[in-house]
C-alpha cells in the first residue's frame, strides 16, 4: 500500500495490562480530555491514518474513537508485528497510548527520520520512550535518537501523571 499523502501513518499501541497503574490509565483526565484523546487529537495534525492496536485487556477502547482498530493479544512484540503486517504502510510512527507530549517534539523527531535505517527510536535523556518510526518491514538496522524535552511523560505511575499535570498546568 503506497503512502497517500505527505502525512505519516501512526500506530498507537494500547493493548497492555497497565500493571504499574491500571489498564485504563490512558483514560485519566488531562485538563478536560483523556490522555489518549489528547494524543489522538495531536496526532491528527500530522497523520492521515491512525491505527490503534488493542487487546482483550483494552477492549473498552473499541469504537471509542474513529480510528482503524487492530485486535491484538496483549503481547507487545507479537501485536507490533501483527500491526506492521496489517498496516503495510511505511514510514509508520509507533507510539504508546499512555504518553503526554508536545506535538513539536514528535514533528522534530519525524523530521530526523533517516530512511537508511529500518527503525528509528526516540529516547528522552537516554531512556526509551516507546516512540519509533518503522521505515520498512525489517528489523536489522536501527538508530536511537536522543532528545531532551521536559514536556514528555510516559505515564506508568501516579507520580508520572502528577508530574505531567504540574508541568502542563500553566501552558
Automatic annotation (TrEMBL):
<keyword id="KW-1133">Transmembrane helix</keyword>
<keyword id="KW-0548">Nucleotidyltransferase</keyword>
<keyword id="KW-0808">Transferase</keyword>
<keyword id="KW-0472">Membrane</keyword>
<feature type="domain" description="MobA-like NTP transferase">
    <location>
        <begin position="10"/>
        <end position="142"/>
    </location>
</feature>
<keyword id="KW-0812">Transmembrane</keyword>
<dbReference type="GO" id="GO:0016779">
    <property type="term" value="F:nucleotidyltransferase activity"/>
</dbReference>
<feature type="transmembrane region" description="Helical">
    <location>
        <begin position="90"/>
        <end position="110"/>
    </location>
</feature>
<dbReference type="InterPro" id="IPR025877">
    <property type="entry name" value="MobA-like_NTP_Trfase"/>
</dbReference>
<protein>
    <submittedName>
        <fullName>GTP:adenosylcobinamide-phosphate guanylyltransferase</fullName>
    </submittedName>
</protein>
<dbReference type="InterPro" id="IPR029044">
    <property type="entry name" value="Nucleotide-diphossugar_trans"/>
</dbReference>
<dbReference type="Pfam" id="PF12804">
    <property type="entry name" value="NTP_transf_3"/>
</dbReference>
Amino acid at each position: 500500500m503506497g503512502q497517500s499523502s505527505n502525512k505519516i501513518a501512526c500506530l498507537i499501541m494500547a493493548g497492555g495490562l497497565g500493571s504499574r497503574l491500571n489498564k485504563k490509565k490512558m483514560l485519566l483526565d488531562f485538563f478536560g480530555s483523556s490522555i489518549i484523546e489528547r494524543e489522538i487529537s495531536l496526532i491528527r495534525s500530522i497523520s492521515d491514518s491512525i491505527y490503534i492496536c488493542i487487546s482483550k485487556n483494552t477492549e473498552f477502547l473499541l469504537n471509542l474513537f474513529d480510528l482503524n482498530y487492530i485486535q491484538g493479544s496483549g503481547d507487545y512484540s507479537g501485536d507490533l508485528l501483527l500491526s506492521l503486517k496489517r498496516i503495510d504502510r511505511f514510514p509508520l510512527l509507533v507510539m504508546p497510548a499512555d504518553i503526554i507530549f508536545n506535538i513539536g517534539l514528535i514533528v522534530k523527531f519525524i523530521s530526523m527520520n533517516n530512511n537508511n535505517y529500518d527503525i528509528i527510536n526516540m529516547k528522552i535523556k537516554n531512556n526509551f520512550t516507546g516512540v519509533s518510526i518503522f521505515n520498512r518491514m525489517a528489523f536489522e538496522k536501527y538508530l536511537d535518537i536522543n532528545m531532551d524535552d521536559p514536556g514528555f511523560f510516559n505515564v506508568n505511575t501516579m507520580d508520572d501523571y502528577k508530574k505531567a499535570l504540574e508541568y502542563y498546568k500553566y501552558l
